[in-house]
Every structure is written in C-alpha cells, then in structure tokens.
Amino acid sequence: MSQTGQPTALFELDRADHVRADPDALSELMGMRARLMKLHGLTPELDDNGCIKWGSLTEADPDAELVFLGLDGDRGCFAAVPKRPVQVQRGEFMATITRLHDRQFGIYAGARSLVDWHARHRFCAQCGAHTTIGKGGWQRNCVNPDCGASHFPRTDPVTIMTIERREEDGSRRLLLGRGLGWPGNLYSALAGFVEPGETIEEAVRREVMEEAGIPVAQVRYLASQAWPMPSQLMLGCTGVTFHEHIVVDRTELEDARWFSEEQVREVMSGRPGLFEAPPRYAIAHKLLRMWLEKV
C-alpha cells in the first residue's frame, strides 16, 4: 500500500479462496477501503505506466453484481459484471494488452474472464431458470428449487506449439503459420483447442496435422499463459518432426512455412526479416525465444 491508502501500482492479488465462501468476510471486505477495477465493458482503464486503475465500490452501478478478485494485503478488490454480454473486437483487445504492464496481465485476465462469464450465464444451462452469483463470484446458483444446479467459470485449454524439423547437417527449421486476416506479415506458432478426451500431446499432434499436414513425433510441454479471449489457458509445447512437405488447411490458415534458425533469430532481434514476430506479451513470443535458446 502507498502512504495515501491507495493500492500500489503493482501488486499481486491473493485469490483468498477461504474468503469466497464466507458471506460475513466478503461483506466486511466491501467496506470503504474496498477497490473496484475500472472497466469500460471489458476494457480496463490504464495509467501512463500501463497499470490498471482502481476506484471505490461507490462507482459501481448499485444493481451490478460484484466479483471478488482477491486481496491486496487486507483490502478487497472487486470487478462489476456488465448488465449484458459485451463484444470486444480483437483490435481493441490487442491495443489494451499492448499497453498493459506485464505484471498486471494475470489480474486483468482473471477479472475479464470472470465478468464476461457472469454476463453470459444468467440462466441455468440445466433447467433455464435464473441464476444468482455465489461464492464471491466464483460460482452461479440456479434459483429453481427443483434444480438447484451450481455452475462454475470455465477455462478452455488451447495448445500452442513450436514444431522443429532437424536437417541432416544439424541445422534446425521452425514451422510457423499465419492466421486468416492477420495484420501485416505476422507469423506465429500453430495453436488449437484441446478436444474432449484428448491429452495435450494428442491435441498438439492432431492440430499440426490438421492445419499443416505435418506428423509430429516427440511432444514436450514448456509453459502456459492465461489468455482472456474470452477464457483460455494457452499450453505452450514444442514438438519434433522429420517431415518437410506442408499441406495448408486454407479454412484455418492463410499460410504455413518453414523458417531457418537464422531467419527466426533475425526477426526476434528486432531487425526486419521475412515475417513479423508475435507481440512480446503473447506466449508465442516466449516460445520462439525458447526455441532459439534450445530450451
């Protein structure tokens, strides 16, 4: 906390699961010291340093549902749920997270995913009756006494992968793709949703085969990133193939091609190259750097 009593610009929220199910504790945290994330729809207000701006709960619509995001020390932090679902254009989302401070990404990702989920789930998927917010915003409950179903925020797993081809001379090439309608000359790692019943490894192999016609042998997990568009968990992987011929699925990709290690290194160093690199805040950027470092 700063000496003025305002939340510090950079802090990590304690999600405080023990508080969510305690109505008395939540009510106490909604006092004068509570803070509200400043959102316009799903877009946060940011200061000049790219940090999220916070206000007081008095700034929220009196009828708005409030989601408990967690604790900054002993101070409760909340976000208000829009009265109706909000459509955010990809360009607006990208412009926001380009400015967002790296250490604020997780806080925003959690808040955005939660409030968007609440705005879209006001009715029970089991019986169609109204639902009410529960457990501080980490649950919705059906009001129908004959149903009483509880619903929980979902996270959709997505694999994103760097696929390497090793040449006989020991050199390496990296498979990158370009999505439909992507700006400029951007190329990135291939990605796709994990389907029901699949392992991460199976999803990597299926997606690469579907999008580029390349069979993948070894698959290894590397890292993950929350991606609130609207509520995904990006599972960063790397894979190895010995196949060269690419067959692009034009319903999924505009293009896919092999790039040499030198070409990738040139682009990632900031020099103009054969393609534009993924933005620094995306896990794809990290995966390309890890590939260059042979992680």
How would you describe this protein?
- Keywords: Hydrolase, Magnesium, Metal-binding, NAD.
- It catalyses: a 5'-end NAD(+)-phospho-ribonucleoside in mRNA + H2O = a 5'-end phospho-adenosine-phospho-ribonucleoside in mRNA + beta-nicotinamide D-ribonucleotide + 2 H(+).
- This protein has 295 residues and is an alpha+beta fold.
- It folds into three domains: 120 residues, no CATH class; 33 residues; 137 residues, Nucleoside Triphosphate Pyrophosphohydrolase (Alpha-Beta Complex).
- The chain contains seven helices and 15 strands.
- The strands form four sheets. Strands 10, 11, 12, 13, 14 and 15 form a six-stranded mixed sheet that branches.
- It starts with 16 loop residues before the first helix and ends with a helix.
- The N terminus is likely disordered.
Topology (SSEs and partners):
Blueprint: H1 17-20, H2 23-29, E1 35-37, E2 39-40, E3 43-44, E4 54-55, E5 66-72, E6 75-80, H3 90-99, H4 105-120, E7 131-134, E8 139-142, E9 150-151, E10 156-166, E11 172-179, E12 190-193, H5 200-212, E13 219-227, E14 232-241, E15 253-260, H6 261-268, H7 283-292
Parallel strand pairs: 1-6, 10-14
Antiparallel strand pairs: 1-4, 2-3, 5-6, 7-8, 8-9, 10-11, 10-12, 11-15, 13-14
- Using only C-alpha atoms, the radius of gyration works out to 22 Å
| Proportion of strand residues | 25-35%
SS content category: alpha+beta
Order of helices and strands: HHEEEEEEHHEEEEEEHEEEHH
What is the approximate shape?
elongated
